[in-house]
Design brief:
CATH superfamily of the largest domain in chain A: P-loop containing nucleotide triphosphate hydrolases
Strand content of chain A: 25-35%
CATH architecture of the largest domain in chain A: 3-Layer(aba) Sandwich
Order of helices and strands of chain B: HHHHHHHHH
Radius of gyration of chain B: 21 Å
Number of helices of chain A: 7
CATH class of the largest domain in chain A: Alpha Beta
Number of helices of chain B: 9
Largest interface: A-B, 17 and 18 residues
Largest sheet of chain B: none
Number of domains of chain A: 2
Number of strands of chain B: 0
Structural class of chain A: alpha/beta
Helix content of chain B: over 70%
Largest sheet of chain A: 6 strands, mixed
Oligomer: heterodimer
Distance between the termini of chain B: 40 Å
Amino acid sequence: MRVDLEDLVFSRDSFTLRGSGTFGAGVHLVSGPVGSGKSTLALLLAELLQPGSGAVRRHGVSSALLLLQFPEHHVTCPTVAEEVRSWGLAPEDVLLRANLVGRGDDDPFHLSRGELRRLTLACAVTRNPDLLMLDEPFSSLDCVAKREACRTIEERGAGITIIFSHERAVLPRVDAVWEIEDGALTPRGSVPDVIPLWRHAPPYLAYALREGARPENIRLSDAREALCRIRG
Amino acid sequence: MQDPRLRLLAAAVLSLAAFASTAGAVAALAWWLLFTPRTKALPRPGVLLSLIAMIAATALLSAWGGGPGLSYLIRMIALLLLATWVYAETEEGEVLAVAVWALGNRVGFEIGLIAEMGLTGLAVIRQEIEQMRVAMALKGIRPGVRSIVPLAMTLIVTQIRRADEIAGLLVVRGYTIGGRVCPGFEADPRDVLASIMAVIPVLLSTLPLRDVFILVG
């Protein structure tokens, strides 16, 4: 199971996005500053945008799902329970997973953006597609909810998960890191070898590297463990 | 048409003519063919065809019941084409400028502001329909009769909520009544010609055809 980007080029006004590479099974983090083209790349991978040249080719992927940057853009029904049903899921399980038990009759627009984010993330993960693309899944979430979201992503056993995020504080365990800057997508490589090469690495990873530690992954806990190892 | 005053006036006059009689509607269609960018001012084919399909279904029902179905079809299509042309050509702030020019900074500003908000709302609805189309595609929902009702409800509720938010925002910013706008307009000589020609469909719709044309029998 993999997704190939073959000399992908997409242009809109003065912005151009270019990229090549392969997303294999596992969790991929596409990091980069705000406005660097992450959402555009997500839409291209989800085939909601067509590239000017090049192609996105899926191999062995039977189902794909993109979680949009703004969770309210997913809403198509007037109640939370109906919204969950519109994803083809049973409300009880999803509301439990999203920590929204008892809110089934609420208007989805009466949920806070963080609650709506939890709801859409729970729906997407419960659907369990082969290719799951998450555009800024941690935005609007507090630290506790971000950690919960990370756990949910890590628990997804199989398939390809691609996270597009500028988050630099709370991150899940990932298998590969990509960077996108000024419209150019660069596959940095696999974790942990990629960590010293990662230009937009979170400050705690940069600190750990400066101290001579070698974190095994990109989470804060990995940096802490690596520092503990060298300090005894 | 560059001048929004003449554009809105022509649209109002032509709409009246098209609504009044089939002859007026045919003449308005001829005017639309001559003086507008025609297909460039039309919405996406899917949107246009679905609107025409709704009109055609009503016309068919009317004809089936012995009513003037064909006349209804022609008149409504003329109105639809005129509306899409005016909507496509109207730029932000033009309706407010025309209303203030016509009725002053108090009543004109109020009417113009309401009209501008309505037009902005239409643009937002278009955007939201597009977002919902994407959301449905992501969820694997096929557009159909079953999905229309919850979608329409969500759209209406969102619009009501947005109107409430805008009203609150105006109050917060200290808006009470009226405002000051100094409208400026640029007219093209062709605008004047098109506006004068817009009178012909009105004449055709109000006068009996036999008084306008001498029919040789």
